[in-house]
């Protein structure tokens, strides 16, 4: 960028970066706490997402950092394998993203059915809400969504100001107030103050109230020296990647992070008229970022839509805003860590509860109805399976339903046997896809053709015919030749519709109505 151009855009980019920084600050810490990690880990990921990924990004207006979409997966990894194993997982996941971008596979990550992706985000949103309501009461979340749901009444009773209760009710009030402020701000935000994020306002007011009233609540623990929060990857930990569970987790992180990043990048492209996203370059940048996060023991990152949309709405036009937001995060942590240590954990949990509720997007669910019932079923099944089982199972169920729908569509074939005006002539009309799944139905219809019939089979209405169906037709022609029956297959479009090349043992028959026919 030339000096004149830089001078022209710098004020706008600095202002936008401050807005993004204010949005990112509470989210980075809240997502880390929800993931079972110290808040500083989320801040480190946000810093890397700004300074490194912001510089390398293929989507210049997209902002990267810790994302709510990976909270459930990270929490499970930390709970089962320990925080130290997150480093090797991120290193491998980042390498997979880097390779995917290098081999130009970015477009394939967007092949995922939207119903599965949105269902996955909805399921994650429900799990975040179920876990963070415990944190809002200064409690500890349980391992599963169902356990969090069942255990909530007991956690609530322990937080109430009874004889046996503690001070969890104070934290709960702060969390609820944070959610209320965010909701009211989103609903009635003055146009002149649209750049002020609701999350920052909610957390700021809750922090001031907790200090003024001297409430006995848990507060954020951030080290005075950011270097103390870095846990360098130990080479010996890489050997643990031989564990199949860790390998699956790495592939899951790579896939989910890539899908969420590219969906976010596509959404950001629709918000502005500037440079379009290079999805492969963006994947490589995310891969580098996640590998760095793995090396320093931070949280995984993705491109995130909330911070990215705030960036566009604040007037950003270049990647400088995303880079500067990382610099603001770094400076704040280095110089004002004592301010972060005053923030109530319950208030950050309130931010995550509000974020989780918004992930369950009812408008998206209703919008899927335009494409039929099956996408809605896939969305609901994916979300419910994630809530009641685990993330991987839910996503696999979503993929399974998508493939089932494709198989059903591919196997649809309308078969009708029609009498033609001339005696002894019939036409077998096939519409759709003639695959091996329809061999029994096709056999049954062919068995009803009278002996001595000339059977015409036009292929014009077929989108596809495989060898099993074509060979069935040929076999019928050979088997019924002795009964004076004749099979005439249309030649036009045969090579295009038949799997492989045209058959050489099919001879030309007499054309009818000017159309070429093939005679078996």
From TrEMBL:
Q: Where in the cell is it found?
A: Membrane
Main location (coarse class)? membrane
The topology of this chain with respect to the membrane is: Multi-pass membrane protein
Instruction: Extract the InterPro entries matched here.
Output: SLC26A/SulP_dom, SLC26A/SulP_fam
The alphabetized list of GO BP terms reads: transmembrane transport
Keywords, alphabetical = Membrane, Transmembrane, Transmembrane helix
Its GO CC terms are: membrane
The record places domain SLC26A/SulP transporter at 13-378
Transmembrane helix as UniProt keyword: yes
* A Pfam family assignment: Sulfate_transp
Name it: SulP family inorganic anion transporter
Q: Organism source for this protein? A: Pseudomonas yamanorum
């Amino acid at each position: 960028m030339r000096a004149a151009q830089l001078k022209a855009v710098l004020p706008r980019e600095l202002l936008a970066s401050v807005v993004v920084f204010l949005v990112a600050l509470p989210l980075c810490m809240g997502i880390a706490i929800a993931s079972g990690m110290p808040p500083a880990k989320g801040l480190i990921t946000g810093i890397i997402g700004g300074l490194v990924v912001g510089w390398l990004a293929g989507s210049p207006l997209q902002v990267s950092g810790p994302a709510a979409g990976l909270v459930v997966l990270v929490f499970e990894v930390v709970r089962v394998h320990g925080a130290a194993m997150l480093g090797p997982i991120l290193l491998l996941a980042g390498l997979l993203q880097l390779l995917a971008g290098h081999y130009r596979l970015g477009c394939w990550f967007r092949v995922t059915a939207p119903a599965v992706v949105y269902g996955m985000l909805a399921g994650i949103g429900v799990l975040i809400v179920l876990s963070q309501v415990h944190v809002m009461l200064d409690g500890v979340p349980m391992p599963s969504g169902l356990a969090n749901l069942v255990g909530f009444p007991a956690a609530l009773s322990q937080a109430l100001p009874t004889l046996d209760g503690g001070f969890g009710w104070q934290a709960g009030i702060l969390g609820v107030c944070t959610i209320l402020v965010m909701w009211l701000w989103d609903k009635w935000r003055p146009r002149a103050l649209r750049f002020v994020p609701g999350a920052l306002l909610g957390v700021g007011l809750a922090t001031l109230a907790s200090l003024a009233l001297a409430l006995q609540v848990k507060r954020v623990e951030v080290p005075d020296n950011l270097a103390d929060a870095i846990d360098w990857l130990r080479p010996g930990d890489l050997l643990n990647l031989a564990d199949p569970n860790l390998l699956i987790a790495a592939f899951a992180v790579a896939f989910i992070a890539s899908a969420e990043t590219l969906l976010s990048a596509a959404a950001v492209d629709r918000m502005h008229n500037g440079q379009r996203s290079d999805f492969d370059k963006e994947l490589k940048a995310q891969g580098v970022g996640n590998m760095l996060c793995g090396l320093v023991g931070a949280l995984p990152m993705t491109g995130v839509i909330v911070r990215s949309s705030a960036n566009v709405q604040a007037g950003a036009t270049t990647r400088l805003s995303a880079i500067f937001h990382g610099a603001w995060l770094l400076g704040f942590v280095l110089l004002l860590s004592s301010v972060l240590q005053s923030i109530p954990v319950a208030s950050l949990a309130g931010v995550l509860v509000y974020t989780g509720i918004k992930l369950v997007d009812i408008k998206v669910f209703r919008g899927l109805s335009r494409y039929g019932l099956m996408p809605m079923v896939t969305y609901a099944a994916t979300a419910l399976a994630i809530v009641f089982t685990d993330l991987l199972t839910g996503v696999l169920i979503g993929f399974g339903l998508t493939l089932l729908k494709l198989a059903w569509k591919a196997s649809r074939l309308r078969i009708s046997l029609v009498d033609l005006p001339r005696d002894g002539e019939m036409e077998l009309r096939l519409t759709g896809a003639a695959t091996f799944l329809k061999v029994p139905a096709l056999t049954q219809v062919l068995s009803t053709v009278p002996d001595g019939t000339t059977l015409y089979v036009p292929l014009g209405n077929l989108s596809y015919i495989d060898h099993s169906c074509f060979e069935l037709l040929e076999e019928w022609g050979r088997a019924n030749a002795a009964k004076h029956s004749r099979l005439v297959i249309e030649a036009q479009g045969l090579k295009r519709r038949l799997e492989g090349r045209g058959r050489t043992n099919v001879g030309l028959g007499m054309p009818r109505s000017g159309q070429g026919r093939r005679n078996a």
